[in-house]
Amino acid sequence: MAKPTSFLLVGLPHAGVPQLVASLDQHRDALADIGVRLPARSADEAFRAAVELRREHRAWALRRKDVEGTWAEICRRALKHRDTVVVGQELLAGASPDEIALAVDGLAGTKVHVVVVAAAPESTPAIAVEPAPSASATEPFAASAPAAASDQPTASTTESSATPTPDPSTDPAAAGTGGGL
């Protein structure tokens, strides 16, 4: 029998992960009918799980006991059924390699896919789906997405420019600009 599948949504800030998760939550019952479960009971629970994984409870003015065990409880619910599960929170985008390993280890026994959601300001988010990094991964989630073949930015895009730089070899108007600052 095939392993169940888990999708871990990771979004860069302002990429729309909270809206995506809220939309999934709004359709929780319909998704369950087709074998897709959302093990986090609320956006707050997913937030507390991300804070726990990132070990940032103090930065969010929370006590350790406010977050302790939240990720484990979500994972227990995820593993309870053999359904596909979807869980995510944008705070996970800045996770360290150790934090990534902790998140993925909690979903052991499932085929984990990391879904990186990224967008340039004032644009439609682009989504890249990649298999989860192994526990020995050395890069944060944000650096694990492949470059997209289109102009749409992904998590691996480090810089974007609103206006393309002219190429003197293909643009005659740019040929005489000299390239100085």
List the helices and strands and how they pair.
Elements: E1 5-11, H1 17-26, H2 28-33, E2 36-37, H3 43-54, H4 64-67, H5 70-80, E3 84-88, H6 97-106, E4 111-118, E5 126-131
Q: What does this molecule look like?
A:
This protein has 181 residues and is an alpha/beta fold. It has one domain (5-158). The chain is built from six helices and five strands; from the N terminus they run E-H-H-E-H-H-H-E-H-E-E. It has helices spanning 17-26, 28-33, 43-54, 64-67, 70-80, 97-106; strands at residues 5-11, 36-37, 84-88, 111-118, 126-131. A five-stranded mixed sheet has the order 2-3-1-4-5. It is globular, with a radius of gyration of 20 Å. The model is unreliable at 135-181 (pLDDT under 50).
Name the beta content range: 15-25%
Distance between the termini: 62 Å
**Shape, principal axes of CA atoms:** globular
Number of domains: 1
Keywords:
5-stranded mixed sheet; 181 residues
Short description, anyone?
With 181 residues, the chain is of the alpha/beta class.
